Amino acid sequence: MKSWISPSPFTLLLLLMTLLSPPTSLSLSMPSTSRYSRPTTAYQDQRPGTSGLRKKTKIWTEDSMYLNNLIQSYLNVLSTNSSPSSKPLSILLASDGRYHSVPSIAQISKICGANSDIVSTLHVPQNGVQSTPSCSSYIRSPKNDCSAAIILTASHNPGGPDADFGVKFNGARGEPVDEGFTEEVWEESKRLTTLNIVDDDDDDVTIDLNAEVGTTYKVGGCKVVIVDPYEAYVSTLEKFFDFELLKDYASKGNRILFDGMHGAGGPFGRRVLGDILGFKDDCFMRCDTREDFGGCHPDPNLTYGKELVERMGLDGKGRKTGKGEDFKLGAANDGDGDRNLICGKGVFVTPSDSLAVIADRWEDISSNGPLKGVARSMPSSAAVDVVAEKKGVRNFVTPTGWKFFGNLMDSEVLGGENFNPFLCGEESFGTGSSHIREKDGLWAVLAWLSILARSPSLTVEDVVNQHWEKYGRHYYARYDYEECGSDGANKMMENLRGMIGKALPKDGGDYELNKIESFSYTDPVTKEVTANQGMILSFLVKDSPARAVFRLSGTGSAGATVRMYLEKYDGENFGGNSQEELKGLGEKAAEIADLERFTGRKEPTVIT
Q: Per the record, what are the reactions this protein catalyses (predicted)?
């Protein structure tokens, strides 16, 4: 036993001076234990959005401190934003399975273990993989006692050593954290001077991600628990959909084709569609997770979903090929399982049309009561607006970003009106409802399956044609110009903004430009104003309304993606191909924006 030695008066004086001295660090949280404290140098570029921080993988792999600093900054901000009675917190730590996820889970565990005053328990899914929708459901389940999530994902971006990696943060309602929180994380990251991390030499930090559910580990002062990633999510879906109806549909030999794109959505699709509902093995493709997504770009669209599209009898422009296999429904999810592509044999359903059809046939899908609210992102087509007006349902048009939908879903919680059950969707293949607070690729697949199961004699093409006959057709396409120079892209947007209020070009052609405006949004729940969310060019094309929208996307890891969205309404002609119908409008809009001069691009990278 060690004896206690009384400190000298000099030692006591030094200790008192140390305690009274102001901290040299401006960090929000002092190191929890000096044993784990390490000096660090702040980075100036760690500015996450609500979709997280995405960078080239090499930035994360070649400098381990890059991840360490971001997580410590996040924990510091999380601590200051949490009530003292709620700390320490339980946090979910999951990934979409992409390259660098496994070592990152180990690294983050060591940081949380050294910040046990902030984090008491880490919930880690078995195998480390969990789709983003499942993460949201997991947090929302009271059984799991989980307050937040760190999700290692770059969503639909490619994976691998030469591709992309990212970190995303979700809040206590399962929602992506808001911009105010991410801005705090950025500010903290720019002034961070110390962080806490468990040293491999001092502690056993080995975690077996393949261990049985319920296995626990101790890392520093934090408990790490291996959890079931499926249970809460499957339970949520079972409460929303009529699984017995869907099982019956599968048992009658109806076949679907589900493409997991080697992302996190694959295992969840196979678990629900295969193991539970009973669709056979030949209904699934690329449903095993791979670190590089099998070399594919895990973005479910006509370009990157080429094999699925071809097997459904379509070409890269969404036109019938006269070929294809006998599947009732074709669907794909992206890298983290929150996006979806829907098609039938010989027909591609645009995300905007998919949203409108689901709104119109809500009673075929859900037994949770009549639809009370719908919302779409501004660049999405107005197809759902027409449905909402006819049905007398509250309708909202928001900026792109799921947080705006989340505020509407939580309106009653935040002191406003109750809009739930609520349906929402965005142009970038995201669809969802108030069952969770993220878009949900598998949910959209089950919604379409429910429509077909209620009317088994109908095909996807029948459903879409009936919808157009009832409401008219909004021809729609999206042009993506990927990895453009940021300076040029921003100058193009500035140039368009400079046209507001000025005389518009008139050339006497088929495309009459009658308005240019910048989209701004006042959140009806929080009253926040979000400005400069895209430039809208409104046209008349042979007396029918049309528009082009220009936006810069913030989800890439390099440069800027310029997105041009094209839409034209037609109340009589439903049989055209969207890309062909909108080609002239796209050329005119690109000419007005002077896109080639600013970006150097003549053609888009992807057309969907």
A: alpha-D-glucose 1-phosphate = alpha-D-glucose 6-phosphate
